[in-house]
Amino acid sequence: MGFFVFEGEKRDIFWIGLIILGLASVGLFGIFWMVAVVMYPENRIEFLRGLVPLIIGGVVFVFIGFYMMKSGLKTS
Description:
Elements: E1 9-10, H1 12-38, H2 44-71, E2 73-74
Antiparallel strand pairs: 1-2
């Protein structure tokens, strides 16, 4: 059945990628929650400009996690 994306035996690299993906997702969610709900700075553009490296880093780690998960599968 080809319904699930990650079918096959999961090696250690898959689980490490899953941890990286999870941590990056939690970090990005925290950043977006802080921007949308918690913080109301006077100069919002300057505030968001300071968050750009964190957001880009989080997105990069999400892609790294997905790639590690994909390469950590052993298909028969």
